[in-house]
From TrEMBL:
Protein's UniProt keywords contain Signal: no
Annotated family: Belongs to the threonine aldolase family.
A matching Pfam family: Beta_elim_lyase
Aromatic amino acid beta-eliminating lyase/threonine aldolase domain segment(s): 9-296
Keyword Glycoprotein belongs to the record: no
SUPFAM superfamilies reported in the protein's UniProt record: PLP-dependent transferases
Gene Ontology biological-process annotations: amino acid metabolic process
CDD domains noted in UniProt: TA_like
Cofactors: pyridoxal 5'-phosphate
Name this protein carries in UniProt: L-threonine aldolase
Length: 348
């Protein structure tokens, strides 16, 4: 360690604290005193309405503690135990949930067809369907895509439509892991509807934690009939908060005052600023385009070791790319300090 510790870490957007708007909402909901439990409270009702208004459709909305539960319980609701889930091989649901989707479905398999750049394609879905035509195989029931992807890329509305068309042709449901959906909406400059139900997404895990909340992701079923059994599964899985207002009040507040989008814009701009700050470092290449709030660098091992010895934290993922991820609280001076440290470590 050097004597100057990194001023801020960019290992993940969940290193951040609670954004002021979310924290104030919790404080205000608490100051209101005694209120009915398990979501039978005004904040939860209004937060559900705010999400329906945000998407411009009459969806079924639920709040759970985290994204793993949102994904696993939603996929379990859409996939019988004797069927399979199609995902990319870098999908959070495949790599980072300790088998929760398989566990909560009670027997499904996750199929991971080859996918260029970490994005699912219609051809990949068709391949999975072709491979499982036998009665003895776990035929696919649901496709899950992540927007933005785990490597920071975006699906365009047209790409999602093409995937959902393929799903319809094969009788599959389409789930979106939107742990960072706000970043996708901010980057594409579209409405939330334009990249979800309007292009055939059936159900969404809508991330709040990485957007600036303390805890609490939303699950949105755009077709209410598909939500059958979700509430019961969530309770069985220990994901129904008794003091639900502390999960829902920040959602209500951040949608009403626009903080959800402001936070995402800031995070995306921070990633772009970082990428620009290191653009001229010799021999340093990006692993993927900077579409959202992450930057993946093909950092030589020696430079990575130097940075780690200086106290910088980052994950090396997907075959060796160093990931830097920016949240609502990313500070420009700290981004510059990281860029300078990388430049020095690269000998430039
Ligand atoms: C962070 C994340 C989740 C949710 O993770 P939890 O730690 O369970 O909240 C889900 N999907 C993706 C792509 C993520 O990055």
């Amino acid at each position: 360690m050097t004597d100057t510790a990194p001023p801020q870490q960019f290992a993940s957007d969940n290193y951040s604290g609670i954004c002021p708007q979310a924290l104030e909402a919790i404080t205000r909901a608490s100051a209101a005193g005694s209120t009915p439990a398990y979501g039978d409270d005004p904040w939860t009702r209004l937060a559900e309405d705010a999400i329906r208004t945000l998407f411009g459709t009459d969806a079924a909305v639920f709040f759970v503690f985290n994204g793993t539960a949102a994904n696993a319980l939603t996929l379990a609701t859409l996939c019988p135990p004797y069927c399979s889930i199609i995902a990319t091989d870098i999908a959070h649901a495949e790599t980072s949930e300790r088998g929760a989707p398989e566990f909560f479905t009670g027997g499904s398999k996750v199929m991971t067809p080859p996918c260029p750049e970490g994005k699912l394609t219609p051809a990949a879905i068709k391949l999975c369907c072709r491979k499982t035509q036998s009665f003895q195989a776990s035929t696919p029931a649901v496709v899950t895509i992540t927007q933005p992807t785990e490597n920071g890329l975006l699906y365009t509305a047209e790409e999602i439509k093409a995937l959902s068309d393929t799903c319809r042709e094969h009788g599959l449901k389409l789930h979106m892991d939107g742990a960072r959906l706000a970043n996708a909406v901010a980057a594409l400059g579209c409405t939330p509807a334009a990249i979800t139900w309007e292009v055939g997404v059936d159900a969404l895990s809508f991330g709040g934690t990485k957007n600036g909340m303390a805890v609490g992701d939303a699950v949105v079923f755009f077709d209410r009939s598909l939500a059958r059994g979700f509430a019961e599964r969530a309770k069985q899985g220990g994901q129904v908060a008794s003091k639900m207002r502390f999960l829902s009040a920040p959602w209500l507040s951040m949608i009403k005052n626009g903080a959800w989008l402001e936070n995402a814009r800031h995070a995306n701009e921070s990633a772009r600023f970082f990428a620009q700050s290191i653009a001229d470092v010799p021999n340093l290449r990006l692993a993927w385009a900077v579409d959202s709030n992450s930057v993946f660098l093909l950092l030589p091992e020696q430079a990575a070791n130097t940075l780690r010895a200086q106290g910088w934290r980052f994950y090396t993922m997907f075959g060796g790319a160093a990931r830097f991820l920016f949240g609502w609280d990313a500070k420009p001076e700290a981004i510059k300090a990281l860029a300078n440290a990388i430049r020095a470590a690269m000998g430039g």
